[in-house]
Amino acid sequence: MADLKFTVEDDPEQEDIRTIINKLVEYNNDRQIEKDVYQPLAVLIRGFNNEIVGGLVGKTQWGWLFVSHLWVAETLRGQGYGRQLMTKAEEAAKQRGCSYAYLDTFSFQSLGFYEGLGYQIFGVLENFPPGQQRYFLKKEI
């Protein structure tokens, strides 16, 4: 295999990225008991003129809800909207057959918020970003 070469690409083509992901998913599907199928999930809060003023983005997969992003407009924070977004996402995940949820957050974000919802830390990445921590949390729903 002397003809192989490594390239480091700062701006890779989307098609190249998709090839790597597809090949890994294909490999995993050949070896997993249950096929790797996920379903996107979004819970949105809309205001005047249908403008999005808060929302949650995630997916359900293998009986788990993954929350990748949660945002509420600054003027609405502290009024329970984030809690309602999480509750609605967990309810939707249960309807999809999920029993668990996981997410991550940073030390400068909302660790206490998630712990208050019953999420428990199962991992910490120190100095990510430098001087901060990234927390990984899970919960049975």
General description of the model:
With 141 residues, this protein is α+β, with helices and mostly antiparallel strands. It has a single domain, classed as Aminopeptidase (3-Layer(aba) Sandwich), CATH 3.40.630. It has three helices and six strands, in the order H-E-E-E-H-E-H-E-E. It has helices spanning 14-31, 81-95, 111-116; strands spanning 38-46, 52-61, 64-72, 100-106, 120-126, 133-140. Strands 1-2-3-4-6-5 form a six-stranded mixed β-sheet. It starts with 13 loop residues before the first helix and ends with a strand. The mean pLDDT is 94.
Instruction: Give unreliable regions as ranges.
Output: none
Assembly context of the chains? single chain
Count of individual domains = 1
Largest beta sheet: strand ordering: 1-2-3-4-6-5
User: If you average the pLDDT, what whole number results?
Assistant: 94
Strand proportion, as a percent range, falls in 35-45%
Structural class: alpha+beta
The CATH topology annotation reads as Aminopeptidase
Shape: globular
How many strands in all?
Answer: 6
Helix content: 25-40%
Radius of gyration: 19 Å
What is the name of the CATH superfamily?
A: Gcn5-related N-acetyltransferase (GNAT)
- How far apart the termini lie comes to 49 Å
Q: Would you list the SSEs in sequence order as H and E?
A: HEEEHEHEE
Sheet with the most strands?
6 strands, mixed
Number of H- or I-type helical stretches: 3
For the record, the CATH architecture stands as 3-Layer(aba) Sandwich
